[in-house]
What does this fold into?
Amino acid sequence: MNNLLPISSQTATNGQLTIGGISVETLATTYGTPLYVLDHATIAHQVTLYQQGLAEVSPNYLISYACKANLTTGLAHQLNDLGVGFDVVSSGELKTVLKAGVSSNNIVFHGNNKLKPELAFAIENNIRIVVDNQSELEKIHEICTSLQKKASILLRLKPGVDTNTHAYIKTGQADSKFGIDDIYLDQIAEYIRAHSTLNFLGIHAHIGSQITELLPYLELVDVMSHYLKKFQFNYQLPVKELDLGGGFGVAYTKSDAIPNITDYLQKMVSKLILKCKETQVELPKIIVEPGRSLIAQSGVTLYRVGTIKEIPNIKTFVFVDGGMADNMRPALYQSKYTFEVGNRMTTPKTKTYSIAGKYCETGDILAENVPLPEISQEDIIVVAVTGAYNYAMASTYNRVGRPAMVMIKDGKIIELLKRETDEDLLRLDTGD
Ligand code: LLP
It folds into this structure.
């Protein structure tokens, strides 16, 4: 089986792709298309890789799922049951994970411009806040004073580590909009020491997303070790929690090299332990914030083929019933994906097609020139590795509702999200 599909995928004798024993035809017919499908077994497997990587080197850790990658209440519930925490970046994400029963102690609140009501809601609910800048620190202090509460904070640092990923998803470099520049740290540390509303927990850095090399992470450990020492000895603010961010890459196509998560983590944490010994700093609790690498491969998107349009001597388009609004990554980042015809898994790939969506834009192309079996109308196109940043970034462009989402767990279907209908789209309109 193609290792980019969810791990419970199989091909039935009739050529149908099944996930957790359920055929994509059944899923597409029951729930309609486009449909996001998540495989619980794959998510559980990825969580285990993280747990193994961390538990062997440091028992005190939190895997904080960056739920911007994909979130519904039911999904949060399932992840909570697997023992992961949550990194949230808005009151919407925060309320979703609280509704799913996640303990405030397992939540980390991020963002470079958190709104005052969001901060107040987080403080009222005792959520850790990762502070992005001095003015946010001042806002937190004011809110704490008026609510007569304390806030537990980490500081987001700018580690100055560059990565070889897409420019839109780099975050650790000097000109990034995220994090505090080293030059401001003395005054920020003084501010924290002077305000008893602020309970300093530690420091955070995130170098970017879809990173497939180990070196930037080892550089990050070097930089953060330097700060552990500085906070403890120069600022008298010992770091109890060190959040190393997320960003581990995944394979979208067979030619992408996949980093071994367990190996990465062991190398990073072993280096950190050594550095802490050298500098006589106590090893803090380690937080990691994977988004994509926990969820991406668990997900596939199913589409129905509506029309096949041949442009003689140029290309043949296959038009599907979704496109850039449910997966904007090809248009935004020129991302490549892997495609299958879900009802013809055993048919040789003798044709070449360009897969285009239904949206009114020439750029609404999911892929150019993909080898596939000969396609007919009503066939099911399956796009692999769409569990992360697909639904999360979906739009209602052209006033088309967003797809439904289901999870397959233990051979059963759990509905996570209903399809957005035309009536749903009209619901918030005012005026005649
Ligand atoms: N922590 C922080 C502070 C982040 O900003 C992010 C992602 C993560 C953790 C999780 O990173 P991951 O493990 O998922 O790489 N829309 C883009 C990705 C944006 C990532 C934003 N921050 C895409 O579709 O590739």
About this structure: The chain has twelve helices and 20 strands. The pocket of LLP is lined by residues 66, 69, 87, 110, 169, 171, 206, 209-210, 245-248, 289-293, 329, 333, 389, 393 (CB under 6 Å). The two ends are 53 Å apart (CA to CA).
